[in-house]
Amino acid sequence: MVITIAGGGSTFTAGIVKSIALRREELEVDEIRLFDINKERQDKVAVVVDWVLHKELNTDIKLVVTTDVQQAYTDTSFVFAQMRVGGYAMREQDEKIPLRHGCVGQETCGCGGMAYGMRTIFPMIKLIDDVEKYAKKDYWILNYSNPAAIVSEACRKLRPKARIINICDMPIAIIDVVAAAMGIQNKKEIVYDYFGLNHFGWFTSIQYHGEDLMPKLRAYIKENKILLPESYLKGMGALTSSSSQNRHTKGSWYYVWKGEYEIMENFPEYLPNTYLNYYLQAKEFVEHSDPNHTRANEVEETREKNLFDGIDHYLKTGEVDANTFYAGSHGDWIADLSAALKNDTKARFLIITENRGAIPNMPYDAMVELPAYIGKNGPEVIARDNIPLFQQGLMMQQLNSEKLLVEGCVEGSYEKVLQAFTLNKTVPSMSVAKAILDDMIEANKGYWPELH
């Protein structure tokens, strides 16, 4: 049983590997392979992974570290895909170029997300083709490479038969925060309903042991004017502290969690995905953004620095600070998802999938985010009734922006990509869309296909 992590040089890799290793009996995993095109970075991360597997957890799981496609994927059963095309240097451009033009600068939303999407589409298609060529025939790709909405639409359009499930950890991070705010210890016992697109959705119900938590949650958010647990509210300094272990509560994230209160003051029925702030409060987010110091810089100064400083310290002294070796808890969720596929458990997960009538008043081919039961044959999506007009209208605008972007990227059409930028809710006008796009074309030379 082989699991390959594509993007092995990620700061999240050690945490994901630990989650796999802790489920080694469920997954019956014999070998973990790290694959990345950045050898130097991956080799450093591999030091941590080796420590996790063979010293911290004392497993006999074999570790292979490679930059060779064939070695990475031959006879693998699962591929966890977490690529970041262009690295943090290009993420910084994604965030800072739109801000220069007075628009939201964010890595997965708005123009930044579209730029990142256009860099990622063809590398993801190549990954699918490589896995199809070398892996076991019943392989599964679990893709959480951002921007997942655009990537999943491209996969649907270009490789519709691929055995790929597109996922996102942000709803899980929101449930983590909800559990902490409500004083719930076992977050796995929370059951929720949700609909939307990736980074563009709403929780319609959240239940714990049969109790509807939404009234309590609304009251909590209204009282505290933010969706963060009390432990964070008592010491707001932790939000910007490099030692804070929750990557979704750093610096600029404060405004995102505060935005939950502001949105629900106007639209209290559903709990919004935090990313909806960038669309519903675009003006406000631009106003409190620093165009010279964005989230990419925050990550480089905290998570990135902590990990690689920790690795250097370990190599010099043999001493380990485990707090620097892990980032994010989404590895648990990904490992659980792979266990559900392997063992046919029919456990419930939130996934990105082709609609096919599951939301009746959304297009059949829309890539939507919905709960599904996961078994050996893949997801069984849980259908729902029509969604309200407000949410449907927002989703259609975003969906069509993403579809136009994918079409424009595949066809090399400047006009369609410009239409995608113009249609996006974070952009105020056609002329602003064009100015941003032209700057993005210059910044993404060598990454984007040529647009004509």
From TrEMBL:
<protein>
    <submittedName>
        <fullName>Family 4 glycosyl hydrolase</fullName>
    </submittedName>
</protein>
<dbReference type="GO" id="GO:0004553">
    <property type="term" value="F:hydrolase activity, hydrolyzing O-glycosyl compounds"/>
</dbReference>
<dbReference type="GO" id="GO:0016616">
    <property type="term" value="F:oxidoreductase activity, acting on the CH-OH group of donors, NAD or NADP as acceptor"/>
</dbReference>
<feature type="site" description="Increases basicity of active site Tyr">
    <location>
        <position position="107"/>
    </location>
</feature>
<keyword id="KW-0378">Hydrolase</keyword>
<feature type="domain" description="Glycosyl hydrolase family 4 C-terminal">
    <location>
        <begin position="194"/>
        <end position="427"/>
    </location>
</feature>
<keyword id="KW-0533">Nickel</keyword>
<dbReference type="Pfam" id="PF11975">
    <property type="entry name" value="Glyco_hydro_4C"/>
</dbReference>
<keyword id="KW-0464">Manganese</keyword>
<dbReference type="InterPro" id="IPR001088">
    <property type="entry name" value="Glyco_hydro_4"/>
</dbReference>
<feature type="binding site">
    <location>
        <position position="199"/>
    </location>
    <ligand>
        <name>Mn(2+)</name>
    </ligand>
</feature>
<dbReference type="GO" id="GO:0005975">
    <property type="term" value="P:carbohydrate metabolic process"/>
</dbReference>
<dbReference type="InterPro" id="IPR036291">
    <property type="entry name" value="NAD(P)-bd_dom_sf"/>
</dbReference>
<dbReference type="Pfam" id="PF02056">
    <property type="entry name" value="Glyco_hydro_4"/>
</dbReference>
<keyword id="KW-0326">Glycosidase</keyword>
<feature type="active site" description="Proton donor">
    <location>
        <position position="169"/>
    </location>
</feature>
<dbReference type="InterPro" id="IPR022616">
    <property type="entry name" value="Glyco_hydro_4_C"/>
</dbReference>
<feature type="binding site">
    <location>
        <position position="168"/>
    </location>
    <ligand>
        <name>Mn(2+)</name>
    </ligand>
</feature>
<keyword id="KW-0170">Cobalt</keyword>
<keyword id="KW-0408">Iron</keyword>
<feature type="binding site">
    <location>
        <position position="295"/>
    </location>
    <ligand>
        <name>substrate</name>
    </ligand>
</feature>
<feature type="binding site">
    <location>
        <position position="146"/>
    </location>
    <ligand>
        <name>substrate</name>
    </ligand>
</feature>
<feature type="active site" description="Proton acceptor">
    <location>
        <position position="275"/>
    </location>
</feature>
<dbReference type="InterPro" id="IPR015955">
    <property type="entry name" value="Lactate_DH/Glyco_Ohase_4_C"/>
</dbReference>
<keyword id="KW-0479">Metal-binding</keyword>
<keyword id="KW-0520">NAD</keyword>
<comment type="subunit">
    <text>Homotetramer.</text>
</comment>
<feature type="binding site">
    <location>
        <position position="91"/>
    </location>
    <ligand>
        <name>substrate</name>
    </ligand>
</feature>
<comment type="similarity">
    <text>Belongs to the glycosyl hydrolase 4 family.</text>
</comment>
<dbReference type="GO" id="GO:0046872">
    <property type="term" value="F:metal ion binding"/>
</dbReference>
